[in-house]
Write a structure and sequence with these properties.
- With 73 residues, this protein is α+β, with helices and mostly antiparallel strands.
- It is built from 3 helices and 2 strands; from the N terminus they run E-E-H-H-H.
- The protein has one domain.
- It has a two-stranded antiparallel ribbon with strand order 1-2.
């Protein structure tokens, strides 16, 4: 049996019913060690790779947000 001090956060829906549990990544690694799950050497995908998929624009961040809001999203 696991005897770890894990800090958890309960995620609820709009009716305050529990739907998920959130824990810190370091705590998750401790749990995986208990079950002999191999620890990944690096994240599966870097956030930098997503930057390449964004449209190139000369708008500032706030101008881009205004444009998206004005389009009705």
């Amino acid at each position: 049996m696991l005897n770890l001090d894990i800090q958890k956060k309960i995620v609820t829906n709009e009716k305050y019913q529990p739907i998920a549990v959130q824990i810190d990544y370091q705590d998750w690694l401790k749990i995986e060690q208990q079950f002999d799950v191999p620890i990944p050497k690096r994240p599966l995908r870097s956030l930098k790779s997503f930057r390449e998929s964004l449209p190139k624009t000369k708008l500032s961040s706030i101008d881009l947000i205004r444009q998206i809001r004005d389009e009705g999203y």
